[in-house]
Amino acid sequence: MRAFQEAETQYRRALDLWPGVPDAAAVAGTAKLRVLTVAADAARWAGHVDQAVRWAREAIDEAAGADGDRVGELYERLGSYLWEARAVDESAAAYRAAEQHLADGPPSAAGSRVQAALATVAVRDGQHVDGLARAKRAGELARAVRARAEEGRALNSEGLALTMLDEPDEGCGRCVWGWRSRSRSTTWRTRCARTRIWGCAWSTPTCSPSRWRCFSTGWRRPGDWACCTPGRAGCWPTTPARR
């Protein structure tokens, strides 16, 4: 069952009641930080990204004094929500904050997602070399903790950067491996729905438009599709670094 809207409603009720309940954490059996975190994720999947952003910010405030890794994970989540809310500059700032908090910690899936996201930001800003370096670092972090989904994201970011550096064959090869790494689904549409990654279509022997059937674009709502046609080439930015 994926009743995200109902889950969001129940979390909202819990958070509304929280201030008036003595020792609310003991009554609920969990900390308010945990409720805010899962509430934000439920809101995101329910399609209410602005509410997800608000709860993610509250979670960061609630986590004041927590260890750097935990705060870094929260900023990573906030960056993802802000990207979906099309607040690209704020998203980049959140990812950079996450990078700072995670810098002294061990390799992690969250750290890989942050580097992949910042690679996307760099390429979007025309900093293709920096984007490639960050994508490679994202792959290193993912492999260090055997995070297959994050490795797939890193490969897609690397493929994008390579394509923009005029290496379309190698770049699209990375995109293919990244897509395969992130999902073993038997249908292209399911793969697209699960990943919402950078879609890359290029008219070359190694990566023809026919191999990239559908894309969910970052400038539309999740679930919208943009299908490439023969002879069309290009890359579409989509939501980075989601679990």
Class of one domain, according to the CATH hierarchy?
Answer: Mainly Alpha
Give the fraction of residues assigned to helices. 55-70%
Strand fraction equals under 5%
- The oligomeric state of the chains shown is single chain
Order of helices and strands: HHHHHHHHHHHEE
Radius of gyration: 19 Å
The count of helical stretches stands at 11
Largest sheet: 2 strands, antiparallel
The CATH H-level homologous superfamily of one domain: Tetratricopeptide repeat domain
Large-scale geometry: elongated
Uncertain parts: 184-243
User: How many individual β-strands?
Assistant: 2
Structural class: mainly alpha
Describe the structure.
The protein has 243 residues and is mostly helical. The protein has a domain of 105 residues: Alpha Horseshoe (Serine Threonine Protein Phosphatase 5, Tetratricopeptide repeat), CATH 1.25.40. It has eleven helices and two strands, in the order αααααααααααββ. The chain has a two-stranded antiparallel sheet. The C terminus is likely disordered.
Pick out its properties:
two-stranded antiparallel ribbon; 243 residues; 2 strands
In short:
By secondary structure, the protein is mainly α.
